[in-house]
Design brief:
The protein has helices spanning 2-5, 8-59, 181-233, 248-297, 304-328, 340-349, 372-389, 445-455, and strands spanning 77-81, 86-89, 93-96, 135-136, 142-150, 153-165, 171-179, 336-339, 358-362, 367-370, 394-401, 404-411, 459-463, 467-473. By secondary structure, the protein is an alpha+beta fold. It is rod-shaped.
């Protein structure tokens, strides 16, 4: 059960059913209230009409005993004084509640209130212009709920109270009731129908939501199965199915495939890196081992200088691989403030006596924020690359351009073909055809230089054949760390 309720389909069906249930219950209650209010209003109107009819007779001084009262089972009537004395009531009325008095038998008339045969004949209400005629209040009817027992049957009624003044200026109140049987029956019928229809409708909503959600999530299940298969097979060349729709599931599938593509490229890059690193490490290790084995057997034949050179080469390669690993791990550069012009002059001065001269044009006050060691490594790698390929000279400049700090290292050697200007920044890449192959290089210098430049928020490009340009952001006012890439 917990697993079932944990599914998206179950939660969607439960949520939709709950929302519909709340809406239906609220709507049903509103319908019942409106229906009851309308039917009660109609009942009040019938009771008011009956009360006003009797009040009109009282206003015309019709004797209480001769009042034309309606049937008590339809409209139970009481004529009551303002002090609660009963003057007239329906013949079959046995008990009543909800009016001014529960009495159902008229009290004995007093001389002041007697509307018997003395003093008022049948002609007393026949003249509409009789000045002694009373007055009926048509606008101030009051309503109440109660019960009435007629011929032994008790039912609920709505009573209308109409005030009337007779010809003797006596104030009386006429209560007339109307049964609530129709209202109660209608409300009960509607309520019963709702109790039957509501559960069935909720079941339909739950079933439809379940089916629609299952259909909508079918592509997601396909994506999940394919991802599980990719995980089990470790085949990153596979892709999840993309539905033909243009909804969120389709976008999820496309994003998943894009992620798989990026992951595949990253894994391939790592595999090539490991393979290339193994190949590059194999040569100096094998050479060093051979020299040491020869030296162990024939000490006089040991090439100490060659062994030292192989050891240095191996050490440099290990340092390069370690730096690349740190960069791939997302190591952020330090936030030191560095004078870029001074750093360029220092790196040029550390060069061994090269076969070509180096000309430096480095302005002062060019401050950049970052790692001094890593930036020195970039400039050193660019200088080493220029030394290997220059014919007659190298020119190095450091200046500011449009708020950015630019270091350019140019040599007059063979130009880099335009089609290869991005490839030379890949790891372990050396252009044998366009440039003289350097036996001591592993093809990591330019790759490291570009990665460091990117980590410092800059770029490293080659243009004009053999001009390498390092573009870095100037240090902020407070020496803030450059934005990582």
């Amino acid at each position: 059960m917990s697993r079932l309720l944990g599914s998206v389909r179950a939660r969607a069906a439960l949520g939709a059913t709950s929302v519909v249930a709340v809406a239906l219950v609220a709507t049903g209650l509103a319908v019942l209230l409106v229906l009851r209010s309308n039917l009660t209003g109609q009942t009040d109107l019938r009771a008011q009409v009956a009360a006003q009819d009797v009040a009109s007779q009282v206003a015309l001084d019709v004797p209480y005993g001769k009042l034309d009262l309606p049937d008590s089972d339809e409209n139970p009537v009481q004529v009551v004084t303002e002090h609660g004395g009963l003057r007239a009531a329906g013949d079959d009325l046995e008990a009543v509640t909800g009016t001014a008095t529960t009495a159902v038998r008229p009290e004995r008339s007093t001389p002041e209130g007697d509307h018997g045969d003395d003093g008022h004949g049948d002609d007393d209400h026949g003249d509409a212009d009789d000045p002694s005629r009373g007055k009926v209040s048509h606008d101030d009817a009051r309503f109440s709920s109660g019960t009435a027992t007629v011929d032994g049957d008790t039912a609920d009624y709505r009573f209308a109270a109409v005030e009337v003044t007779n010809g003797s200026d006596d104030t009386l109140i006429v209560y007339a009731g109307a049964p609530l049987t129709t209202e109660q029956s209608a409300v009960s019928t509607v309520r019963g129908a709702m109790l039957v229809v509501l559960p069935a409708l909720l079941m339909v909503v739950a079933g439809v939501t379940w089916l629609v959600t299952r259909r909508a999530l079918r592509p997601v299940e396909g994506i999940r199965r394919e991802m599980a298969a990719i995980t089990a097979s470790e085949d990153l060349a596979r892709r999840v199915p993309e539905p033909g729709s243009h909804d969120e599931v389709a976008r999820l599938a496309r994003t998943t495939n894009e992620t798989l593509t990026a992951l595949e490229k990253s894994v391939d890059r790592q595999r090539r890196f490991v393979a290339d690193a193994s190949h590059e490490l194999r040569s100096p290790i094998a050479s060093l081992r051979t020299q040491l084995e020869v030296g162990a057997a024939h000490p006089e034949l040991l090439d100490v200088d060659g062994a030292v050179a192989d050891t240095v080469r191996l050490q440099q390669l290990a340092a390069d691989l370690l730096l690349l690993a740190r960069l791939d791990a997302g190591e952020r550069p330090a936030a030191a403030r560095i004078d870029l012009g001074e750093l360029v002059r220092e790196e040029v001065s550390r060069l061994h006596a090269g076969r070509v001269p180096v000309t430096v044009h480095a302005a002062g006050g060019l401050e950049v924020a970052g790692s001094r060691g890593q930036l020195a490594r970039v400039i050193g790698n660019l200088l080493d690359n220029a030394q290997r390929h220059a014919r007659a000279g190298i020119e190095v400049s450091a200046h500011e351009r449009a708020g950015r700090l630019v270091v350019e290292v140019a040599n007059d050697g063979p130009a880099v073909p335009p089609a290869q200007r991005e490839r030379i920044f890949e790891r372990f890449v050396r252009l044998d055809d366009a440039r003289t192959r350097d036996e001591g290089g592993a093809g990591l210098g330019l790759a490291i230089a570009r990665d460091v430049a990117l980590r410092h928020g800059g770029t490293l490009t080659v243009r004009g054949g053999a001009v390498f340009a390092l573009d870095l952001p100037a240090a902020r006012a407070h020496g803030d760390r450059p934005d990582p890439v």
